[in-house]
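sorry for the late reply, my laptop died twice this morning and i had to redo everyting from scratch. anyway the thing you sent over, i finally got around to it. pasting the sequence first so we're on the same page, its 783 residues, then the predicted structure underneath. double check i copied it right bc i was rushing
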Amino acid sequence: MKYFSLLAWFAITLATSAFAETATWQGTIAGVPAWVTVVSPNPIPAGVRGQPWWRWGNTQTDAYVFAFETPQNSRMALIFAKTGDTPEARLYLKAWGAQPIAFRLQADHLELTDPPNPVLTLRPQGGGWFVNGKPNYRLTVLEDGLDCDQQVDPDGQIDIEITVGTDAQGDPLWQTNRRRPEADPYQTTRGCERFGANLRAQPELAFKVAPSIMPTFPFLGIGRESPDWFEQNPNPLYLDLRNYTFRFSPFPGFQNGGMYAINSSTYPPKVSFESPFAFYNFDPATRYAHLVVRGSRFPAGVPFGPEPYRLERTTFRYSWKTDNPTVWRYGLHLAGFYPYQETYQIGGQKFTAPSPANLTRFVVGQKWPMISFVEATQGYPGSEGIYFYSAQANEHWNWLSGTSDEPIAELESPYLPKDDSLVRTSDRALPPGFRGEYSASYFRVPQLYLSPIDQRVHLSWAQGGLWNLGDGRVLRTHSLQAGPNVDSWILERPATAPPSPPPSTKPSPQEDTPRAYPGKLEQALYALSGYLLYSGPDGVELRQASYQLQAFSLDPPADRASWQVFRQRIAPFAGRDPRNLRAWLQAFPGASLNLPGAQLSQVRAVPSGFQMVLSTPRPVGTALGLPNLPAGTHLLRYNAASRTWSRRQAETPKLQGRLEAKDARQFEPARFRLSLENQGSLDYIGPAELWVGNELVKAWRGLIVPGVGRWSEELAFSPRGRGYQPVRLVLGKNTLELAPVFITPNQREGIRQEFSANPMALILLVVFLAGGLLGLWRAWRWV
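ok and here's the structure:
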């Protein structure tokens, strides 16, 4: 190849001296030594050669070969031709710029030999490359060299046909990409891009694009810098000289404010995958997006994306900014089954998806079954929003579809990476400085609020939350009252391993990234029934105070007006120090009781108020309505209606229970209900296994049965045993024997019983079947 390239360059040089139709310019492009050879059927006057290289030829009939670093390193060829009054541009690349091209040159004729076919062919509509002095963005572009979405050398068969349309000013307004079916052998097996669309949904925002390196052909760029979408659109055709990669970008733009895109793995009208992907701008002084909505939708029956394919699978990543236009601050992630009802059209292509005007209301107006909320407390840069702790993770679909009876553990115990680099588990992770809250059973329209306790924005009705503080600590949040607001904050050091699994389960493989497993509690603050309860390394403080759990509710921004309201309402609140929970009490004055050396545990809400376990090393006199307490451990309960305290001796958990099974039949699914009662005053918290006969029905890593309380759960189970079966509940190292259940025998047991009782019958059946198969084989051979 190198020898051939040397000959080719020698031929170019010889042709330059012998013919006026071929000339080579030498200089630098983006600081890189460059050679541009112009091949033309027309004379190239000597006087022209003192001008820029792009003036040496034209964009109607001439060709340009680009070499860099050495004259033999030809990386790109651009050949122009003309049919009637319409010009055409053909772009040639080997391995999409990664390898040198090969060609033959004879006087005014340039023939590409490797690759022999162009990767892109551009044709303007209604004129040449310019109309009224402006670039003509009414284009048809043919793309070759895509095996599914993998870039390969072109084979002469067009893969994708692209159409670009303009607005009234002649700027690109929309673009559609459609894969040709005859070039798509993977229609039911691989999720390739089959349809795409890009729309400037806010055409009032000024269109800006980087100047072309070739002013006579306004779409080409060559350089050594990554294009900055937030300053201006990059050149649609761009050769990066740092690593010889070629980028083909949408003509209207993509990740700047005001854009709406479809990237579908299916043909219209049903679109899938990133459908839509929208970037909303609320401040025309900048090109940044202030709200990004990334849909991931797979219509029922589409064989791509997460299973199960029979279901409609719709998820969204919904991120917005506040005071800094360069970083994302908040995000909602939503997952469910809502189909699209609206039909929208871009450039003559109709598809089913919410329009740019209706998309945000569609997302924040549904009652989603799964939701997560994320705050990047220090901000998160990038163009596509907040990826972390996302309901868009594929792993959630086992729970959403009903094939699993538990949501994934990463909601409660997410990965804790060392930084915010994107890796395989990022959608189930919280990097340092990120807060996340979730509900795996939401079925509510997304609603937020600001808590005056911690001065942070929260998800209403969240089941739990966690803040990765980045120094080996996390701050967990809960709603002990199972209400819309957070009422407890737990500062802890996560454990390095999960809680001990039940004896019969296999431990999880060691993971490289740590997880937020429940660990060592360092501080805790609870806001219950007019009390603030603090517990830390120095002791306990109980305070009666006037406070609200919610300062005001907040709607997720859906347009410029609601975005402005959101920013204005949260602006006065800076947030409190998550590493010093005791300092939060200063904002809420009231009567207090300090108990040095004391500890709180098992704080929880009860119907009448709340209760807690207080361990104190010394007696406590009456204060704040508390009774006299000797040194020791006490179960205290507060009645909010009567404003009185009661005390009970702390007793270890004592469980009793029963398993109910109605009409349970052998080998058939049945509903069982396990009910437990704790007669001790302290909660039972630990692993548990339920066994019926020799069959494990379910294992719990962390079963919680409240002290002096009841717990129950309905279980689905298909028993194999029959008759009366013993039932036992394994609680760590202890076993609780429950009353047996009766399983009605099933007739399908009959054949198995016959063969178990009479093994000779099974042998005779095997002999009989073998003889039948031998007879069939002989008959087939005879035919």
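The first helix runs from residue 2 to 18.
thats about all i looked at so far, will dig more tmrw
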